[in-house]
Amino acid sequence: MEPDIITVGLDGSSESLAAAQWAADEADRRQSVLRLLHAWILLAAEAPGTPPDRDQNAGARQLVRQVLDAVRERHPHLQIIEDLVGAEAEPALLRAAGESQMLVLGSRALGAWESYVLGDISLDVVGRAEGPVVLVRAPGHTAAAPAERPPTVPDPRVVVGMGLTAPCDGLLAFAFDAAATRGLPLQAVHGRPLPVHAYAPWGVDPDAEATVVKEAQDDLRAAIDPWSGRFPEVTVQLTVLPESPARAVVRTAPGAELLVVGRGRHRHALAPRVGPVAHAAIHHVTCPVVVVPHD
């Protein structure tokens, strides 16, 4: 791993340009190197000094150079690497994810069914990558099914979705660091569905609901407290909702500058899996979403 490199995958779309701008901002914030990566299996191997009129990769170079010029306007002093890779996009991106601090990709506004039918390389990479993957939408693009918005949108913050069923140190390390580097508060969200006995003929038993929420708050606080000690400058808000973890994260995300969620490493799975929380976030949240793999 090269911790000082942030890689963004480019494909010429408006989403990948938005991803590049986000990655450039992040690289500038972290004083990292930005790598602009474009992978295409038909890129030709050419000797140094090939005349421009014989450059078979001219189109690919122009694609990367256009993004480079756009990024330079906002970050004239940022160190940038241009990387053309003659390979299929997915393996090239997976390799880059293992070599970088994070991999940043553009995200299309597709519904779940559309993604499964059309194929979404971002989703495949997220499900297999060894490092954090950030998905960024193009400006003005909405989610597949907009989340319910609260009456008033909260102040900017970093939101982290917590499952509490497995160790999540990598997830919390990324979330706290992201909040600290931005000077923003961190909102830790946990959704816990009510058990069957909490429902009465007239509706939800308020005492049973209060008990479930209190237990969840205690569990969430126990997971967060050690990290609050390591990042005393980060203000933390704990949020527990009596519903599924995926729905809780989607409902809490509006107004966030960044949403951080985790996924388990399914090393022996035949197909990539991102899990229900990450899947819901990718399809229904409009802010940048970071998916952090964990054991």
From TrEMBL:
Identify the stretch annotated as signal peptide in this record: none
**Gene3D superfamilies per the record?**
HUPs (3.40.50.620)
SUPFAM superfamilies hit by this protein: Adenine nucleotide alpha hydrolases-like
Q: Which InterPro entries match?
A: Rossmann-like_a/b/a_fold, Universal_stress_UspA, UspA
Task: Report which superkingdom the organism of origin falls in.
Answer: Bacteria
Instruction: Locate the transmembrane regions by residue number.
Output: none
Residue ranges annotated for the UspA domain, each copy included: 5-137, 157-293
Q: Which PANTHER family match?
A: ADENINE NUCLEOTIDE ALPHA HYDROLASES-LIKE SUPERFAMILY PROTEIN (PTHR46553)
Q: What is the similarity comment for this entry?
A: Belongs to the universal stress protein A family.
Q: What is this protein called?
A: Stress-inducible protein
Q: What is the lineage of its organism?
A: Bacteria, Bacillati, Actinomycetota, Actinomycetes, Kitasatosporales
